[in-house]
Amino acid sequence: MSTLFKTNRRDFLKMATTATGGLILGFHWNSAEASSMKVLDAAVLPAGDINFNSYLSISSDDVITIFSPNPELGQNIKTSFPMIVAEELDADWKKVKVIQASLDTKKYERQLTGGSGAIPHSWERLRKAGATAKQMLIEAAAKRWNVSPASLKAENSVVMDVAGGRKLTYGELATEASSITIPTDVKLKDKKDFILIGTAVHNVDNLEMITGKPLYGLDFYREGMLFAMIQRPLSFGMKIKSVDATAAKAMNGIVDVVTFKNNVAVVGKSTWQINKARKLLKIEYEKEGNIESTSDHDRIFKELLDSKEATVRRKDGDVDAAFKSAAKVITREYQCPFLSHSPMEPMNFFAHVREDGVELVGPSQTPDLARNEIAKLLNVAPENITLELTRLGGGFGRRLKTDYALEAAELSSLIKAPVKVIWTREDDMSGGSYRPAVRYRFEAALDANGNMIGYKLRGVGINVGNSTREDNFPSGAVDNLLIDSIEHKSPITTGAWRAPITNFLAYAEQAFLDEVAVAAKQDPVQFRLNLLERAKKTPVGAIKYDIDRMKGVIELAAEKSGWGKKKNIHQGFSVYFSHRSYVAQVAEVTMKNGKPMIQKIYAAADCGIVVNLSGAYQQVKGGIVDGMGHALFGNLTFKDGAVEQRNYNSYRLIRMKEVPEVEVHFVNNGIDPTGLGEPALPPTGGAIANAIFKATGKRLYNQPFNKQEEMQGVNLGERM
Amino acid sequence: MATYTLQINGKSLSADVESDTPLLWVLRDHLGLVGTKYGCGIAQCGACTVHLNGSAVRSCSIPVSAIGVGKITTIEGLSEKGDHPVQQAWSEVDVPQCGYCQAGQIMSAAALLTKNPKPTKEQIDTAMNGNICRCGTYHRIHEAITLASSKH
């Protein structure tokens, strides 16, 4: 067995030095200030402590190498980041090579994946990085030809002197460019001149992925490395009382069984051997905290919804007076279960704790956090810890947590050997950090004319500080409003799950507003537009969403879906603002043999400028499939502190047969990119629930939809 | 422990493993063929799909001792340069997001098209229903299979 990962940062730096006379530009990601950029001679690079945050290099044979610092988990950042640099550089995309950077806080900042924030955060600095390098290449050519830089232009990795009929490639100019003083005020392209941005560019890792190359954490192997699986308590709220590992230790290939914290680690020479041995562990547990079941949560939710003690998140006007004077009051409650993140690649991490430092390899959305926590845990200086980022086989927020990296590091320090800790799917589903279960109560007060004069929302979440988004629509459009929340603390671990909070809140809110619109005798689309108009003309309190952008997606979705104009097709509407972007959706349901079937979903998205059209289309489609699958099927329940679903035979994920047609449209408004990894997911559940209501007259108040009484005898995933 | 010699991707490869070791872990831990992925271990997700005598099977649920002289093809052996019609279609349609499940998807699709070169929409749905894609690339998987089928 040999090391399967050949390229790491050090290898690349070596490669750079051996390339003859290339340009290596270190540009500072912390600041978009060109003054902090410096051109480095290739030979200087391996000297170690370089105070720059990323590298764009151009070799003399015209290969342009761009490091991509952020963890790639399917959001396509490894393609779209370099596209932005290449656009302003006017690079020949066919000659661009992209390398995943390891964790390096000296060179990069915000080296994490979460919050749909990478492109919005880096847009400006990536453009400046490309433009600066281009400017230097043009100046180098101008010097050589003794002409004014203004008379030259760059295109497709070539600098051209149009009048003189001369050309030089970037590779030919790279060495000379490296001695040019760094320009401080580079001109960025006019957005209408973009050549690469806005086109459909294929994933840079396609060939590796479709040929099965080692890319993921689980694919990391090293000569002499040990394998480990960890038995964690099956019930939250329990701790280890005693461990008998005699039988497990006697199994073939088992090197050791180590107990630390609440973990019993079986360490051995192969995955299958440790998997077999762990089943022979005899572990007794004892109670440490509350032991909760889903039935307890159902009860707790109802109690807390009526509690007098809630944290007020937003208060406008006088809700009590408004509800007293109302002609009609509508009160509805919505509940969602826990969900597993279930990335297809289960948790895993490689750690080698040595005398002189720590080596970590694996999939993480937050490598910097992982390293800092491991530094603290092992009492090692962070600079003595390296973390090589692999590709992530999905994340969905699970890999924002660092538990699986920490336990690998702790285990390696205990056994003093290199070890890869592997979670089975059962470990993954029972081992914690779930989308929290939440229950909401919405109340609306309508006057005699159907105007919404009062609005109340209370969220009760399990391990969720604030289960609301108090400043989201319709806040600002209602005179009297109260939004508050209550948290129930539980030993069941929870965390951010793709589009945290809004992944369920959006459904509840949009389903509720649909019901209010019907009660107010208004078309659901017009109802929302009227509220937005109201918020624009006479805003109530602070408005933290962009009214025009929200209106834009509502109108585009209505137009593209032929809202209200179709016969025998039942449409449901939903719109949501999350993570800086806006997405409206229309779901279409038809009735066949008396049963509703989801046929099609239209989406109109405003994420500002679309960087990569191919990635963006799929990001929206994938978000909708994700939102639909979990709204219909996702259900993680607890009995005596333990999850009742431990693998895909009982925890249902959406499959190909169940996926409806999806049609995606983008609002092209030229705004700088605002993120797309999450915003397409939240509106889907609401659009579907509202369409089902249109088709059947039945409202769905709980997820998963398929388990609701209203849907008895209906498999919403079934299509004919 | 026993030595098993398997016919994989046109080569004879040997591994010294226990008889109940699933083919998946022989490929990954012992033969360095890591393109075949672990997803669930109970034949529910399809990430570990390989071909056994031309048929798509879940390698997580076949013990090494059951394979005998059967011919195994993994993603690494589907084509020499990644240019199998299904792989080409995958690239042309730009299917992968995180990519983890895609080797299994491709192996299921390739086996389908060998048996049924012109599958209907429903036949594609049925053949691919055992492969989960958590990113939700199902539309593109479908499109790529249709594209590969049109070039047959």
Helix content of chain B: 25-40%
Biggest interface, chains and residue tallies: A-B, 66 and 61 residues
Overall residue-averaged pLDDT value of chain A: 91
Q: Structural class of the secondary elements of chain B?
A: alpha+beta
Distance between the termini of chain B: 44 Å
| Outline type of chain B | globular
Helix-strand pattern of chain B: EEHEEEHHHH
What is the distance, rounded to the nearest whole angstrom, between the alpha carbons of the first and last residues of chain A? 49 Å
Give the strand line-up of the largest sheet of chain B: 2-1-5-3-4
Description:
The complex is a heterodimer of chains A (720) and B (152). By secondary structure, chain A is of the alpha+beta class. Helices cover 29% and strands 24% of the residues of chain A. Chain A has 17 helices and 28 strands. In chain A, the strands form seven sheets. Chain A has a seven-stranded mixed sheet with strand order 11-12-9-19-16-17-18. The relative contact order of chain A is 0.10. Chain B is globular and about 45 Å long. Helix content of chain B is 34%, strand content 16%. In chain B, helix 2 crosses helix 5. In chain B, a hairpin with a 2-residue loop joins strand 1 and strand 2. The model of chain B has no long low-confidence stretch (mean pLDDT 97). By secondary structure, chain B is α+β, with helices and mostly antiparallel strands. A five-stranded mixed sheet of chain B has the order 2-1-5-3-4, with helices on both faces. Chain B has five helices and five strands; from the N terminus they run ββαβββαααα.
What brief labels describe this structure?
A: 720 residues, 7-stranded mixed β-sheet, 5-stranded mixed β-sheet, 17 helices, 29% helix, 24% strand, globular, disordered N terminus, B: 152 residues, alpha+beta
